Amino acid sequence: MGSYLALQNIKPDLILSSASLRTQLTADGLAEQMKYDGPIEYMDELYLTKAEMIVNVLSLQEDKYDTIFIVGHNPSFTELIKNFQDENFMKLPTLGIVAMELDIDSWADIEGGRGKIKSFISPKQFRYYIPKQIRDTLT
Q: What is the CATH number of the domain that holds 48?
C-alpha cells in the first residue's frame, strides 16, 4: 500500500498512529515506503477508541498540516468515514486507505465538518495485478 502511495506521489504532512505495536509497524512501514521523513505521533488516544475521540484528536492539530494520515483500528475508522459523508460506505478493510477531503478551514472546525471520499484503495485491488513500479519495490 505504501508503494502505491509513493507511486502516486502521495505524502502526508503528519502521521498520527495508534500506540499499538501493530499500528506503529504499519505507520513506520508506510512512511518508509513513501520516503516520508516528517513527524509520526504514536497516541494511546487512538488505540481501540470511538470515532468521536479521533475527531477530538484531529481538532487539536495545528493548521500548518494540510494532509494528515491516521493509522488505527476498526470499527472506529469505518464509523469515522460514515460520520463525515453521506455516501454509503460499508467497511474499511484491513490496510484499506481512504483519502477524504474535508470542507473545513481549520482542524478546530472538524467536529461539524462534512467531507467527500476522494479515493479508496485496499490490498485486494492488487491481488491479481501489481503494477511493475510497485513489483520492483517488493523484490
A: 3.40.50.1240
Is the confidence at residue 136, as pLDDT, over 80?
Answer: no
Instruction: Confirm whether 8 is domain-assigned.
Output: yes
Does residue 100 lie within any of the structural domains? yes
- The total domain count for the chain is 1
Range of the domain at 84: 2-132
- Mean pLDDT, the chain, integer: 87
The conformational region for residue 4 under phi > 0 = left, psi -120 to 50 = alpha, else beta, is alpha
What DSSP string runs through 68-127?
A: EEEE--TTHHHHHHHHH-SS----PPTT-EEEEEE--SSGGGGGG--EEEEEEE-GGGGS
Answer whether residue 87 is part of any domain: yes
Residue 139, in any domain of the structure: no
Q: For 62, which DSSP code?
A: -
Kindly report the backbone phi and psi dihedral angles of residue 20, in degrees, each rounded to the nearest multiple of 5, phi listed first.
-65, 150
Q: What is the pLDDT of residues 78-131, one digit of tens each?
A: 898 888 887 778 888 888 888 899 989 999 999 877 888 888 888 777 666 666
